[in-house]
Specification:
This protein is an all-alpha fold. It is built from 13 helices and no strands. The longest helix is centred in the C-terminal third of the chain and has 21 residues.
Length: 209
């Protein structure tokens, strides 16, 4: 099953039209993003490696570690397998993440087949790997594969963005977000991108106040 891709201006416009009709709050976000566009990210081992490294880290911390990883030419499975733990630790990885990246490097994943799989199939395959949870698999589907109907409900930034946008008193739970996001089916990924953008603006405003 080949899913709808967000890496198409036509599809993005179609998704925006749908979301504007379904949700007036998202419609306002769409109006405030007249130049919205998405850049395609890399796929395969390198993309998953970067996502694992970024787990539970701030963007700046994750980027710093990733810069050191790339400078040491450790973006291939072969080189990760050759690297000793001391080197990986010196670059900023935790002991747990050293295990996770080694485990990923050992996997015999056919990334071409993965590119042609449904989100459900991709998530089922990736979450069998130690260190890859549902959030990481969903992020891969959303950013690397460009699948149009994925919503990482456990993402704290998305939860916080929904809280502010919908004027909730408390941040919604993952289960509550799953229910809320059903209203955006089959363009959940587009809704997620809009909400992430909204979250960045919220944080920027907080810093400037």
């Amino acid at each position: 099953m080949i899913e709808i891709s967000l890496y198409s201006k036509h599809n993005i416009q179609e998704g925006f039209t749908f979301l504007s009709r379904k949700d007036e709050k998202l419609a306002k976000l769409i109006i405030s993003n007249p130049n919205f566009s998405l850049s395609k990210r890399c796929t395969g081992f390198k993309a998953l490696l970067k996502t694992i490294i970024s787990q539970q880290l701030s963007t700046s911390a994750a980027n710093s570690i990733w810069t050191r990883i790339t400078k040491n030419n450790l973006t291939s499975s072969l080189n990760i397998l050759k690297a000793d733990q001391q080197l990986l630790l010196s670059l900023g990885l935790s002991r747990q993440k050293c295990i996770y990246v080694k485990e990923l490097a050992k996997q015999n994943i056919n990334y071409r087949d993965l590119n042609l799989s449904s989100s459900e199939e991709v998530i089922n395959r990736l979450t069998k790997i130690k260190g890859i949870g549902k959030w990481t698999a969903e992020i891969y589907c959303l950013f690397s594969l460009g699948h149009a109907n994925v919503f990482p409900s456990g993402d704290l930034a998305l939860q916080e963005s929904i809280k502010v946008l919908f004027n909730f008193q408390v941040r919604p739970s993952e289960k509550e977000v799953v229910k809320i996001s059903e209203n955006w089916n089959p363009w959940k990924s587009l809704a997620a991108h809009l909400l992430w953008d909204h979250y960045r603006k919220i944080k920027k405003k907080d810093r400037n106040d």
